[in-house]
DNA sequence: GTCTATATTTCGATAGAC
DNA sequence: GTCTATCGAAATATAGAC
């Protein structure tokens, strides 16, 4: 079948998502108009509605896609038995994964309050599932006498906050490689939780 | 002099700022309309312009006020000689100050990209000045052989990210007092940077 | 699938009466 | 100082031609 002139559904769709992600990260969801997204893609505003029912779905699909990717990547990662080795693996994974997609990380963190109630609950559930692995590692390490933390839940949130903070200053091509950054943060995490 | 009926400039002004802070924190600057702010205060939209030239100034004044308050409070704090004692003081101060004004903290962190270029530069300068004290403490501690950190700048940002993260989960009236939270975080900071 | 055109709403900000 | 009324611009989303 010959293609209708101007038909690009299979490539325009991803381009819409990509443009939305970039603009949401830069200016914020509420500050970005559908017309801006359309202009970035190179179509008129009306054409966007072939790819998303509305602006809210555009945001939600980006965030759910990011969280799904995070959990899938983590599920495929190596899981050493030793809590110390598992914690190092988690730490390095978290930094690497987040530095590889700064826009998605930024949007997923900053735009939570622009989700509808139902969409928010879904994203929160996925985030909780991710955090639960880290808390499990900490609990095992405490039980094994390797770690000394006052409260595994608080420590989980503190470690994730510290690690995710790397996205606020790291820029590719700077003086440190990702591997070097991983090592610096792993050093801090290891010392902070060790017995 | 008798007051003109409906004249409340001395109390309405702060109420406008308060309402804007609350709404910006909850929904985001771009998502909040001047009419919403006016409704929260109990006046019509036009009356807001007796207290601010425009919406941008409303945001900027809130953020500059918060940063000024932060730096002023820190300038009045005790500054022990010993780097370890200074670091503990800084840590406890940071947590206490931030937990006491969650809305201002949230807005000052999340709405940076909604500032005009000039306003952004001003706020960034104030934030940098605050971070510089922590980096100075770390440098002194390293020189004294008390601390072992790979990079004082990165450690500064990592520690602040971890500490500020407390605002994402702490709620007044929970199972932990602020003092207990301070102690838990100080334990992690101390271990993370110690030699 | 994309376009033009538009319905409908809402926005920031201002003018002028009181 | 606050109100009502409104201007001009921009927003989301839809309808229908091609």
TrEMBL record, chains A, B:
Q: Which residues bind DNA?
A: 33-52
* Entry keywords, A to Z: DNA-binding, Transcription, Transcription regulation
- Protein origin, superkingdom: Bacteria
Q: Which residues cross the membrane?
A: none
The HTH tetR-type domain, residue ranges: 10-70
Q: Does the keyword Protein biosynthesis apply?
A: no
Among InterPro entries, the record links this protein to: Homeodomain-like_sf, HTH-type_TetR-like_transc_reg, HTH_TetR, KstR2_TetR_C, Tet_transcr_reg_TetR-rel_C_sf
Q: Which PANTHER family match?
A: HTH-TYPE TRANSCRIPTIONAL REGULATOR BETI, HTH-TYPE TRANSCRIPTIONAL REGULATOR RUTR
**Protein's name according to its UniProt entry:** TetR/AcrR family transcriptional regulator
């Amino acid at each position: 079948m010959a293609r209708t002139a101007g038909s690009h559904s299979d490539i325009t769709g991803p381009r819409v998502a990509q443009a939305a992600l970039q603009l949401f990260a830069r200016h914020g969801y509420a500050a970005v108009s559908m017309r801006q997204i359309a202009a970035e893609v190179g179509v008129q505003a009306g054409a966007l509605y072939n790819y998303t029912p509305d602006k809210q779905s555009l945001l939600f699909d980006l965030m759910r896609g990011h969280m799904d990717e995070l959990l899938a990547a983590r599920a495929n990662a190596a899981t050493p038995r030793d809590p110390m080795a598992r914690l190092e693996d988690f730490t390095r994974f978290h930094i690497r994964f987040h530095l590889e997609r700064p826009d998605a990380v930024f949007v997923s963190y900053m735009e939570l309050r622009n989700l509808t109630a139902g969409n928010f609950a879904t994203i929160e559930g996925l985030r909780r599932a991710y955090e639960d692995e880290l808390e499990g590692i900490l609990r095992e390490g405490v039980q094994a006498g390797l770690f000394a933390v006052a409260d595994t839940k608080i420590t989980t949130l503190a470690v994730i906050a510290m690690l995710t903070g790397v996205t606020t200053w790291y820029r590719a091509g700077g003086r440190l490689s990702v591997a070097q950054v991983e090592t610096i943060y792993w050093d801090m995490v290891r010392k902070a939780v060790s017995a």
